[in-house]
UniProtKB/TrEMBL annotation:
Similarity comment: Belongs to the 3-hydroxyacyl-CoA dehydrogenase family.
Keyword terms: Cytoplasm, NAD, Oxidoreductase, Phosphoprotein
SUPFAM superfamilies associated with the record: 6-phosphogluconate dehydrogenase C-terminal domain-like, NAD(P)-binding Rossmann-fold domains
Compartment annotation: Cytoplasm
Domain 3-hydroxyacyl-CoA dehydrogenase C-terminal stretches: 213-268
Protein's UniProt name: L-gulonate 3-dehydrogenase
Length: 348
C-alpha cells in the first residue's frame, strides 16, 4: 500500500500549473508528477516553483534548490519525461494546457491511451466546458471529466469552480469538491492564529449548468467591459477607475457578495426593498451600460476598438509597461492578509 492516497499527474507547467503544483503539495497524502512538452520545462520548474511554495514567503525569494531536490528525493514530486510516464499510474490527471478546444480534445484522447480507466480527469480550463473537451472521446471519459477551474493564483485564491458536464457522474463531482475542501491553505502571516486553529481555506463551488466562462470570469469580464467603456468614453481615467473599485466595491465584496451586499442595503425590506426603491436608477443604468467590441486574432478593427488604445495607454502610464516584482510581492502579501481576515471573521 502506498503512503500517498492521491497521485496527481499535472499536465502543463506554466504559471497556473506551477501554482496548482504548490497547492497540491500542501496535502501530505498527495504526490505529484509533472509533465510539459517544452524541452526546457524541468529547468523552468526548478527556477520558478520555489516562488509558489509556502517556504518562500519572504520577499527575497532566495530559496535553495535543495527544496526541489528534497521533494524529488522523497517522491513527492516527479518530473516525467513523457506524457505516458506522467499519467500511467496517476489516480488524478489535471490539465493546464492552452485554452484551445482542439488541443484539449487531442490531449484527452492521448491521455486515456495510457491512464487507468478509473482515474479522475480534471481540467483547469477557464471557459471551455467539459462536455466539449470530451466530445471526441468515448462516454467513459465524459463520465469522469470535470472542470476544476481555479481562480488565479490558485495557490492563494480560495475559489475553485467545479463544472461537470451532462454525463459527469455525481460521485466524480463530489470527489473533486471533497479533495479541495481538505487542501490546507497557505502559511499564515506572522501574528495569525496557529495552524491547528485554521479554518477551511478553499471554497469549491459546484455549478449546475455549463456556461462559457463559468461564473467567476463572467462577472469579472462584465465589470471589465464596463470599465473599458467608461475609460474609452473619457468618463474617468484608468487609474481613478481602479481607485473607485478598491475604495468601494473591493472592500465591500471582500466581506459580502453581490446579493448579500444589496440585501443589507435594502434595510428592513432586504434586497426586494432595495430593488423597489432604486428601480428607476437601476433601470436607467442597465439600459445605458456600455458595449465595446473586442476582436480576436491580434489587433482588431480600429473603428470598433477605439477604446483599446485609450485603456492600454492610460494603464501603462499609471502602472508602467509591466508589473514589477516588488509590486507583485507587495500585492501578494496584501492578498494573503485579506484572505486570512476573511477566514478569521467567518470562523468567529
Amino acid at each position: 500500500m502506498t503512503e500517498y492516497t492521491h497521485h496527481i499527474a499535472l499536465v502543463g507547467a506554466g504559471t497556473i500549473g506551477l501554482s496548482m503544483l504548490a497547492l497540491h503539495l500542501r496535502r501530505p497524502d498527495t504526490k505529484v508528477t509533472v509533465y510539459d512538452p517544452r524541452p526546457d520545462y524541468e529547468s523552468l520548474v526548478r527556477a520558478q516553483l520555489p516562488a509558489f511554495l509556502d517556504s518562500t514567503l519572504s520577499t527575497s525569494r532566495e530559496v535553495s534548490q535543495n527544496v526541489i531536490n528534497d521533494l524529488i528525493a522523497s517522491s513527492r514530486l516527479t518530473l516525467a519525461p513523457s506524457l505516458q510516464d506522467a499519467v500511467q499510474s496517476a489516480t488524478i490527471i489535471q490539465e493546464q494546457t492552452p485554452e484551445k478546444l482542439d488541443s484539449k480534445q487531442a490531449l484527452w484522447k492521448e491521455v486515456v491511451r495510457f491512464a487507468d480507466r478509473e482515474a479522475h480527469l480534471w481540467s483547469s480550463s477557464s471557459g471551455i466546458a467539459a462536455s466539449k473537451q470530451a466530445a471526441e472521446c468515448d462516454d467513459h471519459v465524459a463520465e469522469r471529466l470535470v472542470v476544476a477551474h481555479p481562480f488565479n493564483p490558485p495557490h492563494l485564491m480560495p475559489l475553485v469552480e467545479i463544472v461537470p458536464g451532462p454525463q459527469t457522474k455525481p460521485e466524480r463531482v463530489e470527489f473533486v469538491k471533497t479533495y479541495f475542501e481538505d487542501v490546507p491553505g497557505p502559511s499564515h502571516l506572522p501574528g495569525s492564529r496557529n495552524s491547528q486553529d485554521r479554518v477551511q481555506h478553499y471554497r469549491p463551488i459546484i455549478l449546475h449548468k455549463e456556461v462559457p466562462g463559468f461564473v467567476g470570469n463572467r462577472l469579472a469580464f462584465a465589470l471589465l467591459r464596463e470599465a473599458c467603456y467608461l475609460v474609452g468614453e473619457g468618463v474617468v481615467s484608468a487609474r481613478d477607475l481602479d481607485s473607485i473599485v478598491t475604495a468601494s466595491l473591493g472592500p465591500r465584496w471582500a466581506g459580502s457578495g453581490v446579493f448579500e451586499s444589496y440585501h443589507a442595503g435594502g434595510g428592513e425590506g432586504g434586497i426586494g426593498g432595495f430593488l423597489d426603491k432604486l428601480a428607476p436608477t437601476v433601470k436607467d443604468v442597465w439600459g445605458q451600460l456600455g458595449r465595446v467590441d473586442i476582436q480576436t486574432g491580434g489587433q482588431g478593427d480600429d473603428e470598433k476598438e477605439k477604446w483599446r488604445e485609450v485603456v492600454v495607454r492610460q494603464t501603462e502610464e499609471a502602472y508602467g509597461p509591466n508589473t514589477s516584482e516588488e509590486t507583485r510581492l507587495r500585492k501578494e502579501v496584501m492578498l494573503r492578509g485579506v484572505i486570512e481576515m476573511q477566514k478569521q471573521c467567518w470562523s468567529a
